[in-house]
Amino acid sequence: MKNLDELRKIRDEVRKGLELRSGTHRAKIVVGMGTCGIAAGARDTMKALMDALEKAGVSDVAVTATGCAGFCEREPLVDVEITGQAPVRYGKVDVAAASRIVKEHVLGGKKVESLVFG
């Protein structure tokens, strides 16, 4: 850091990240971040979800992490929980799938049937 403005910028970026991970929101996206999920690319998946939400200007959806769900062969797993609807679990969610889930399900209200795990 070279000056106070850089410190403020870092603070604001951290705050935005924390807002996406906590608080009361209309929806929550939970990414499986156990060892198997991380090995399968869950970090990239989580980043893609957060980037898609930010790009769309969405601030009322929380993005959080959880541990292993026991379905290692289907990782990365992503659960979408929209208030008033049954939760939906998606399997093998790569970066492209993450963008589709945000666009079609979280923003559009329609499950991405080809990605549903269950």
Write the layout of secondary structure elements.
Elements: H1 4-21, E1 27-32, H2 35-39, H3 42-55, E2 61-66, E3 78-82, E4 88-90, H4 95-107
Parallel strand pairs: 1-2
Antiparallel strand pairs: 1-3, 3-4
What is the helix/strand order? HEHHEEEH
What is the alpha-carbon Rg in Å? Answer: 15 Å
Average pLDDT works out at 90
Number of domains: 1
Structural class: alpha+beta
Name the CATH superfamily classification. Glutaredoxin
Q: Give the neighbour order of strands across the main sheet.
A: 2-1-3-4
What is the third-level CATH name, the topology?
Glutaredoxin
Count of separate DSSP helical elements: 4
End-to-end Cα distance: 47 Å
List low-confidence stretches.
Answer: none
Beta content: 15-25%
Short recap of the structure:
With 118 residues, this protein is of the alpha+beta class. Helix content is 42%, strand content 17%. The chain has a single domain (4-115), classed as Glutaredoxin.
Describe the structure.
This protein has 118 residues and is α+β, with helices and mostly antiparallel strands. Helices cover 42% and strands 17% of the residues. It is built from 4 helices and 4 strands; from the N terminus they run αβααβββα. The protein has helices spanning 4-21, 35-39, 42-55, 95-107, and strands at 27-32, 61-66, 78-82, 88-90. A hairpin with a 5-residue loop joins strand 3 (78-82) and strand 4 (88-90). Helix 3 crosses helix 4.
